[in-house]
Each structure stands twice: as C-alpha cells, then as structure tokens.
Amino acid sequence: MDSFTFRSPSKQSTSSEPDHHQHHQFGSLIPRLGKKYRSLSFDSGLLLIVNQRFESPTRLVMATSALNSDRKIVTGPAGYILEDVPHFSDYFPNARTYPNPLQNNAAYSVVKQYFVDEDDTVPQKIVVHPDSPRGTHFRRAGPRQRVYFDSDDVVACIVTCGGLCPGLNTVIREIVCGLSYMYGVKKILGIDGGYRGFYARNTIDLDLKTVNDIHKRGGTILGTSRGGHDTTKIVDSIQDRGINQVYIIGGDGTQKGAAVIFEEIRRRGLKVAVAGIPKTIDNDIPIIDRSFGFDTAVEEAQRAINAAHVEATSFENGIGLVKLMGRYSGFIAMYATLASRDVDCCLIPESPFYLEGKGGLFEFIGKRLKESGHMVIVIAEGAGQDLLSESNEQSTTLKDASGNKLLQDVGLWISQRIKDHFAKKMTLNLKYIDPTYMIRAVPSNASDNVCCTLLAQSAVHGVMAGYNGFTVGLVNGRHTYIPFYRITEKQNKVVITDRMWARLLSSTNQPSFMKHDDNHEPNHSGGEAGAMNW
Ligand code: F6P
What we know:
The chain is built from 16 helices and 20 strands. Mean pLDDT is 86; it is low at 1-57, 63-68 and 522-529. Strands 1, 2, 3, 4, 5, 7, 8, 10, 11, 12, 13, 14, 19 and 20 form a 14-stranded mixed beta sheet that branches. It has a four-stranded parallel beta sheet with strand order 16-17-15-18, with helices on both faces. The chain has a two-stranded antiparallel sheet with strand order 6-9. With 534 residues, it is of the alpha/beta class. The two termini are 47 Å apart. It binds 6-O-phosphono-beta-D-fructofuranose. The site of 6-O-phosphono-beta-D-fructofuranose has 12 residues, from loops.
C-alpha cells in the first residue's frame, strides 16, 4: 500500500514515515486549479494564487476544522469562493497517474467534453442580484482525464449505515457497475451490517452478477446498523484487507464518521480514498438539492394519505390522521401534503402549534368538520414533541445509537387528545395510520433510481480522479464534491418564513399557529441550503 508524508515545500517526499509536523505541500495543487492560476506565494499561512484572467489574487486558505481537517478555500475576484475537497496530490506530490480508461471506452470516447474541466465549479446560490458577490462554489463532479488508481490495484468497499431509505440497493449496484464497467475494477467488497461490520463480520464479495437486480428490492443487501463507529478498528480493518477505496452511504451521523475515518487514514499516511454518498429519507442534509429516496417517500406517502382520505370521507365527522417520518425536518410531510391536495392540516417540527384556544388545532378541526364533514391531518414524527413531553411529564433526553433524539409517538398521542377533546361535543371517527416504516422499506422509484445512479457514478469518478474526503451531492442540478464539514455542521430545515411553507399554508388553508408574540425572523436569504428552494 502507498503512503504519503506531509512535508514542507522544500523537502522531497521520499519517506514512508508520516511527518507529524504536518506541513503542507501546495505546489501540486496548482496544476489542478487549472491554467488560469499562474503563481503562488506564502503569506502568513494563506496561499495566494494569482488568477491570470482577472489579474487579481486568488487565495487558498487552509483552515482547521473541529475534526482537524484542512479546509481548502480558494477565493477569487468578485467574491468568488471555492470550498474545495482534499486531493491525493495535496499530500502525494509524486503520486503516479494513469490515463482515464474511459478514453478507450466505446460509449464515452465519442462524447464531446466528456471529461470535466479542472476549473469547473458550481455555485451554491443561483438567485443573484446584479451586485451580489459570486459567493460559494463547489467542485464539479465527473470524470477527469487522468486517474490516480491503476484499476487492477483497486480494492473497493461499500458500507451502508443508519436507517433504511429507498434506493440504498440502487446506489450499491451502481457503484459496483460504475467501478466495473467504466474503470475495469474487479475487487469490490461489501461491509456487512454498517460500521461495526468492518471489524466484527466477514466481507461480502460484490460483482455484476450479485448486484444485478438488487435495485428492485427495498432495504440494503449489505445490512445496516446505528453506532459501532470505532475509528481505530475500522481503519485497521481497511489497512489489513488492503482496501484503497471506501464508499460510505449514510446520513449526517454516518458522514461525520466518514470524516473521522478519512482523518485517521491521512494521519496513518495511507493512500486510501474515502467518499460519502449522503442518505436520509428526511431530506435534512444541507447544501444538496435533495437526498435520494426522498421522492419515493413522498410518492409512497400518497398511498397512506389516500387511505386516510377514503376513511375520513366514509364516516360522519371522519378524521384521517397520518404520521410521516421527519425527526427534525418536515420535508416529507410538507411535500406529501402539497402533492396530495387532500390534506387539511400539515404539522411539522419546525412550526410550533398549540391545541387549545383561539387559533389552536382543536378550533381548526371543529371548523373544518363543520364545513366539510371530514378532514385529513398529516403530522411529521418530530412535530409537537414539546407538547407531548409537557403533557406526559416525561423528558425526551433519550438518544439512539446514532445520537438522535428518541421520539415519543406523537401520532398516537394527538389522536387521543383530539378524541378526548371532541368526546362530549360530537361523534368523531378518527383513524390513525402510521406508514412510516412501510414507506422507508420500499424500493426506489424511477426518479430516485436515476438520482442514485448518477450519485454513485459521480462518487466513483471522484475517487478514481484522486479526490478524497468528500460527499457527492446535487447542487442546483449539478453533481458536486462537497467537503464533509459542510454537510455535517448543521441540518437542513423547512424555513417557515420562506415561500414554500407559505405555499403550503395557502394550499391547505390551515392556521399558521404563529402567535403575534412569536418572533420568527424572516429569512431574506432564501435559506442556506439549496434544498428545494423553488
Ligand atoms: O433516517 C431517518 C429516519 O428515517 C427518521 O425519519 C426516523 O426518525 C428514524 O430514521 C427512525 O429510524 P430507526 O427506527 O431505524 O432508528
């Protein structure tokens, strides 16, 4: 296995012993920044790169994150910022490269500009004013002219962690197909049962035959689990098995784990690439347009909402109440409501509500039943948890193995509260439907299958091209490589002072439940995340 050293620019990289002073070799970065950048000099820890086209300095800033990883930030004219991801050439200045095998691939060799230009980056924000700074950009994903692995030497592994999500098997399949068909890789291992599978289980051999029709099945053929992240044991296992490409599919907790694995791999001086493919049915990962499986979840939720509507319309004062997933973010509930048109009220974690009194939920239910004789309520599992703990006088400090807050069943609780409230006033027929795990366990739909395929291919291209320590994600419709820290430092939430929530309120005509003294700061920026800010 190759190793690298962190060396000051004056030293040659010859030793296989890691240099614990961790000076950084920037020189090799210049070719990858492209032809427009022509010189550099060190200026108190910042790397200045002169941009030929604009004749103004472009600054590469190496900052230190909480995880002690280097942040590669390039700044340019008119407020341009590139939040770049690590690359083998940053710390393997003499790493051998090879022509991309796609050049000889009959399908790709005819495609004009199939290889991504080194200078291509994707803006985080696309709604701009004439005087807006150019803002933050991410490196565009895709195949590069040269690759940093000889296909015969590649030993790749894939692991799935955390909760289920439609499309996991499709991502696994397409990583295997991408590596095999596009790059001729022959050795691909599946890690059994999440992070702990690295050190507690045998690996599973993956090839084109094993993965052939797994995309038609829900779940993950590799198995999954929460927790089990023992960095030392995981990296020992990677080293012992000779693995040099690690593809990690999971949510924000998993991606934090991937960042720590990447750090440890770098610390040990191993030439091993770590790439994350973000997964969460809740769609709460920032920066990216949407996470795979979300579209399927919204579609599958329609079946439960339809059933709730049928039940509600068939009985006197019928109420259909559907609980959907969404621990901290109500995206599934919001989109399922907007898609359905049968929902009268959507309750999400971001929008506090109250039951009793003027403008409260009970008043609204009474009004809607009087008007139309039936109603459908959609509630995200994380909504109303504060009310629930107040009324149960139980604390909600329990956490699952991933560190997520363990929720109490708001669906059951609110059903009972509604029944109790109306018991003496009218005959109520309330049917509570909890389809949460059924939704998560289905295979991905056509749109998510395409999404999974492209994410997997982008991850494979990035790793083969020498990029490292990144998560792949769709930003404004383009695939990008995003540094781990950007997608783990916060969660994406529905901004209830943004247009989308206003559209929902106009569609259901439900109260906003905002009291006049609620202080909701308007979000003039349209939210930081790219996620579905239409
Ligand atoms: O992965 C997110 C999620 O689906 C949440 O919506 C949900 O709260 C949680 O996982 C439940 O997962 P589990 O019961 O498997 O821990």
